[in-house]
Amino acid sequence: MRVIGQSPKKRKEFKLEKQKNIMKMQILILAIILIFFSLAILPEVKSRTVGPKPILCSYSNFGASVYESNAQNCVDSDKGMKPCVIGEVSYEDATGNQVTISDSCTGQFFVSEFTCSGNEVLEYNIGCKKECVNGVCT
After folding, report:
1. Is 1 strand, coil or helix?
2. Which pLDDT tens digit goes with each residue over 30-64?
3. Which residue range(s) make up the domain with 106?
4. 25 and 88 co-located in one domain
5. Quick check: 77 and 87 in contact, CB under 8 A?
6. Which residues are within 8 A (CB) of 135 and not within 5 positions of it... i.e. 6 or more apart?
7. Which of 96, 117, 130, 132 is deepest in the core (most CB within 10 A)?
8. 97-107 per-position pLDDT tens digit
9. Residue pair 88/111 in contact by the 8 Å Cβ criterion
10. Which of 98, 77, 94, 90 is nearest to 121 (CA)?
11. Confidence of residue 1 (pLDDT cuts 50, 70, 90)
12. Pick the residue with more confidence: 9 or 115?
């Protein structure tokens, strides 16, 4: 576009500024498209998988308390704090009795997750992002 009365230098600066603004808009549009695309596929990435692949879910850890302080030979079937996997902890208590406790829902959105830590059984209070079903965050 030719502007009457402007010097060639001013016209060139105007043209460069216009091109910069066009590039900024293109970058902004591209960023919006990338954000939209990533949000569209995010549920697919977080979905549960079957088999040896890891199961992904969202949860919040509200801390642990000691469930049993004299647990001998403690074994955790899901091998750690994994609220997206059903598990159970087996141990011998102070009197020598074999005890088994399973991860369990403590409401629609909470799970009690049990783990071993040395000679202690810890109980984690976990808040599930979606819900708790049969001792597992979904």
Report:
1. coil
2. 777 767 666 655 444 444 444 444 445 667 777 78
3. 59-137
4. no
5. yes
6. 86, 87, 102, 103, 104, 105, 111
7. 132
8. 999 999 999 98
9. no
10. 90
11. low
12. 115
